[in-house]
Design brief:
The complex is a heterodimer of chains A (191) and B (201). Chain A is mainly alpha-helical and 191 residues long. Chain A is built from eight helices and one strand, in the order βαααααααα. Chain B has three helices and twelve strands. The longest helix of chain B is centred in the first third of the chain and has 28 residues. Classes of the chains: A mainly alpha (191), B alpha+beta (201).
């Protein structure tokens, strides 16, 4: 038997939504924020974000199976030991989790945008203002949450790159050297 | 009178408590400061999954059999979106948890604006799975605020006629839907106007 389900992907209510302009603004704001926080804060926030993704993915059958498999190996024990002794979890548990998957998807969408050049010409674009409310308290960041989140994130990186590569012209089986003309240089060479 | 070297120093407990207190205070201060930092973090535009035509999926299968789900996802956003379907472990009323063996085709898709992608999800039922109704959820990775409730009745062949997919929603699900974040396409329309104004200016 075959069941049918339909769903739509839409923007979050009461926000500007995902447009090329808002994605560029968000990326620019993310890069600017790096100047105002320490490297440790940035890494802790990313680690916390991966762990949050890991907690979410662990609820699915695939994630739960992977977690179960990892739990029975020395990888989990060694990882947790490093996590505890080097206090990786302590730092990450106090950090606000970065929405790593949403950020990756937004960056991929920018790479595929048709109007990116026009939007970049409009810079600087102000980023959407945060609500100002404190984010919810973080959960304890464990090694297993992190590793599963990092796995899910990496899978999505590979899948995204492969999907983008499929959008292009398939590579020809035979390459003819010199077949593609070299584009002429514009302006002075000593520029 | 000889001094007992094993006896705890009168100040040792006090020092330990003070150290613990200072450590906790530092930890909580850092936690609060980082939350403050997070409150002014840049906004990341996100995506919401909105199930259509009901959120309840019901299947009937026999141990050793298979069944399929087709999931159509339309992207109403103005930029590409990623879709990765996922199935949760299914749990029966008796407490049996089934981690289904699922094949997704495709496993991942970049959906262009206004485009629709159709996923074919094939689920294999293990031979030794006890009979009963198993409940779980069908979702998209990273978009778990809204999911399809998914239940499978497992019966031996000939025990019960095949059921069908229903588009009905229970009252509880309606209430949950009403209480949850209520994204709508108007949000996209309003945002479109906003972005148009921004690009015009």
């Amino acid at each position: 038997m075959t069941l049918t389900a339909k769903a739509t992907l839409i923007d979050v209510d009461d926000t500007a939504g995902r447009t090329t302009a808002t994605l560029v603004a968000s990326l620019a704001a993310r890069l600017s924020a790096l100047h105002f926080i320490s490297g440790a804060d940035a890494i802790a926030s990313l680690t916390s974000g991966f762990a949050e993704l890991g907690r979410e993915v662990s609820k699915t059958a695939e994630g739960a199976r992977l977690r179960e498999a990892l739990t029975t190996t020395t990888v989990a024990a060694n990882g947790e030991a490093l996590w505890r002794v080097l206090r990786v979890g302590d730092g990450a548990s106090t950090a606000v989790p970065s929405p790593v998957l949403a950020q990756l998807r937004n960056d991929v969408a920018l790479l595929l945008a048709d109007d990116l050049e026009e939007v970049l010409g409009l810079l600087p674009i102000p980023a959407e203002a945060p609500t100002g409310a404190l984010p919810p308290p973080q959960q304890t960041v464990t090694f297993l949450d992190f590793i599963i989140g990092y796995w899910a994130f990496s899978k999505e990186v590979v899948a995204s790159v492969e999907a983008m590569a499929k959008l292009g012209r398939p590579p020809s089986a035979i390459a003819h050297p010199g077949a593609e003309p070299v584009p002429p240089l514009k302006g002075s060479i000593l520029r | 009178m000889p001094e007992n070297k094993d006896a705890p120093h009168p100040f040792s407990d006090w020092i330990r408590l003070q150290t613990d207190f200072q450590a906790r205070l530092t930890d909580e201060t850092f936690r609060y400061l980082r939350r403050l930092q997070g409150a002014v973090a840049p906004v990341t535009p996100g995506t919401v999954l909105l199930p259509e035509e009901g959120t309840d999926l019901r299947a009937v299968a026999a141990p050793g059999g298979t069944f399929e789900i087709t999931l159509e996802v339309k992207n109403y956003q103005r930029v590409h979106a990623a879709s990765v379907p996922a199935l949760d472990p299914l749990v029966s009323a008796t407490g049996v948890t089934w981690y289904p063996d699922v094949q997704f085709s495709p496993e991942f898709s970049l959906v262009a604006p206004e485009a629709t992608i159709k996923f074919l999800i094939s689920v294999s039922v293990p031979q030794g799975l006890p009979e009963g109704t198993y409940v779980g959820a069908l979702s998209l990775r990273g978009l778990r605020h809204h999911t399809f409730r998914f239940s499978v009745e497992i019966h031996k062949p000939g025990a019960k006629p095949a059921a069908q997919r229903t588009g009905q929603r229970s009252g509880r699900q309606d209430a949950k839907r009403a209480n949850s974040v209520r994204p709508n396409r108007r949000a996209s329309g309003a945002a479109r106007k906003t972005s148009r104004k921004a690009s015009e200016s």
